[in-house]
Structure formats: C-alpha cells, structure tokens
Amino acid sequence: VVVENVLRLDLLPNQLKTALSVQMPLRAHVLTRQDLQVASGLCGLSSLRGAGEKRSKDHVEKEERSTENGETRRETGREDGVKDAREDASALLTPYAVVVDVAHNETAIERFLQFLEHHYFGIPVRVVVSLTKERSVSVLQPLMNYLSFPRNNRLARLHFVEANHERRKTAVSVLEELETDNRVTSELRTAILAGLEEQFRVLSETRAQTDEKEQRASEEETESLIHVPDNIRRYTHLLQSCTAGHLPEVLRFAYRQATAEQSVLVACGSFYMMKEVIETLGFLHGPVDEIDVNERCVTPVAVETGSEKAPL
C-alpha cells in the first residue's frame, strides 16, 4: 500500500487565488520590463527618443562610412544587448537588468553570483549592498572572486550604504574593518573605498545645486551625530553619502550609472534594505508583510495544565 503525504486545503476560489499570488522571498528577483520602466521614471531617466538618438548618432555615422559600395545605409535595428522594451521610442532608458537578492552571507552571495554567471555571463555588474551588524565586510569577498580579475574586471562598482534599520552594519564599522580586519583583502578594500568615493562625489555635486546653507547644516549634523574613531577620520567625508537614510539616493544614482554603462544593477546583502529598495524602484505592489522576519521571540506565557484551565 502506497501512502501519499498530501496536504489538502479546502479553499474557496478567491482564497486559492490569494494563496497563489503570495510573493516569494526576494531571491534572484529579476525586475520585468514593465518594472524597469517604472523604476526608470522614479530614478529620473529620460526616454529613448532624445537621449538615445544622440548616443546612437556616432554609431550610425560609423556604419555609413564603412559601406564599401558608397551607398549609405541607416540603422534600423537596435544596438546589441538592448532589450525589446527599447524598440518603442517612448520607452525609458533602463539598465541591462536589475536583480534583487537577500543574499546576506558568503554562501548565499556565492549562490547568487552563480545565478548571475549563468544568466548574465560577460555583462558588467554594479552592486549596491547593505549588511547586518553581525556580518564582517569579508563576506563580500566572493564578489571579487567572481567578478574582478586583472584582465577581465566585470565589477563596475561596489557601493556600500547603510539600511535604515536598527540592526544595520554602520559605515563607521565598515571603514574600521577595512583598516583593521586582516580577513579583508586589499582588492575588496580598494573596491569598497572606490565605491564610497564615487557616490560621495556625485551626490555632493547634486546637493551643491541645492541651498548652500542647507547643505552645510546637513554636513555639520552628520559630523555631530556620528562618532568617528581617529584611525578612520580621513574618511569622515564619505559618511555624508552612505549612512542610514542615504540608500534611496545611492540606489537611484547607481541605477542611472548602470543605465549609462549598460550593466546589471544588483541590490543585495541584507533583508533589512529591501523595504527601501522596493519603495525606491517601485516594484512588488502587492501586500507586504510588515513583520520583522528576524524578530526575537518574546518570552512565552506559561499555560497551566491539569485540572485548572488556562485563562482566556
């Protein structure tokens, strides 16, 4: 006799539809073409008509000059690697792809990188990452092992930024580990500092267009609220673009950069960054569970057994 272990749920049609529509955890979540159009609008990108025409002008002229029989020919197809969404001239420019993953340790990051290798082999990758305070910066080493080689560097940039959550790993602790933790390789240290410098420079230029007094007040507030140890004091300026609250700004900047260079934009490293990522890029419009999945359990209430009934 064969006994099948089958879980049977008697659900009404509307209940079944709701159950099947529950979003899976954010593991290797690739934004759809429609998601990318929404995200591009939120990140302030222009349409293909206008920005794209200027960018492709040189490519068309080059083909015209290379025609052997003297006849000119016009570019009618799309550039290599550009997705079907761009065939519509009114479509917004987008990165090559955007992938979100809750990879938070070395094993999970390696598994995610294997996914990228399989689906986006040879494509440059730009990463926005946050960590929880329990993690060492060294968990990001697989990014270097998979993407960064002397003759084939696919890591366009690595951007660290704090998630706006009490269990986040702070930028100060990251900078301290870069100076003191011997598990952090020189390649990883260089990559993180380069990403921090780039986002600081670009975001500072953007803020310079705002009120100068407001910008100075923000810088002074940052310095007063954050205690910076002496051994990383030379990096104090970087804290103006990677502390809690800066993630949306950094992500929008990275999205625009990934669009310009046609790289894959990756957001990963911590579950706690995902609320900001989802809101900034505007995807996953369904119900969102507000419960902290890593929340510590409260002390259970003892339930009396025996002749006495537990209170209701």
TrEMBL record:
EC number(s) per entry: 6.3.2.17
Domain of life: Eukaryota
The keyword Coiled coil is assigned to this record: yes
Region (Disordered) location: 53-85
Keyword Ligase attributed: yes
Keyword terms: Coiled coil, Ligase
Gene Ontology MF, one: tetrahydrofolylpolyglutamate synthase activity
Coiled-coil annotated spans: 193-223
Protein name: Bifunctional protein FolC subfamily protein
